[in-house]
Amino acid sequence: MSLCQTHDLPNPIAHLYPGNATGTLNGTISVLPIPLSLARSLIPSQYTILTSAYLSLLPSFPADMYPAILQAVHDHEVQAFGYKIPDFTRTGIEFPFVDMFNDGTSFKWNPALLMTAGHEIALKGAGDYGIDVFPAQFDPSCDAYRAGSKHSETVFAAASENGKASVETVFEASHSAEWTFPLEFFKNVTNQPIFADGKTCDNMIRLFNTTVTTSIETVVGTVRARIPPFREEKIWEGVEGIRLDSAFIENNYLSCESFRGYGAS
Prior knowledge:
Low-confidence stretches: none
Shape: globular
Strand order of the largest sheet: 1-3-5-7-8-10-11-14-15
Structural class: mainly beta
CATH class: Mainly Beta
Order of helices and strands: EHEHEEEEEHEEEEHEEEE
Distance between the termini: 47 Å
């Protein structure tokens, strides 16, 4: 078996935030449009969906649709207090613009993740939020994507060890002159406080201005996913997104209450 060698760049901010968890995330963030009625049936009923928040960022987005998010990313050089954990990969469908406290603050509901099998720190870390975690095998095993058969094409695949969840993507560089989903939208959804069971929240601050973000590519492609909260496999074609490497600062296991009034978005 050939040794998998990551192409990720080193963590550029660990020395700046030694008391925080930091790392880099390389991968693809894409938008999966679903009917707003479906989103409403999937997201726990006690939470409001802030349609006005995402429509203000996406004025041409259909009013009866909702922008679910797929992230397929490789966590690299994650560390805190001088302690570094092994790299891992994760993917899942996320639900942004969820209002936990009816104060206009956008949270992101992350109900399920496929994560690198055997990485007990990452698996337990996600599970402690109440996330439905699926230990999984990934292709590639140490990167967020690999080259496909076509020029500029990238592929990614994840399959849970229990056979109950999977995600496959094929993306290629977009040649569209305009972005359907502006960069400000992606900055917004990747910086919303994250929750699963609502008991604790993850404050991940995604940075788009460090040395690892050398380019941000727009991509278009196909996503095939079988993962909760969806009850059956879903296929999206013509999916648009961005492919990039970025640094992050993470504050774990915070009281969700502490984000009351965090900011209407």
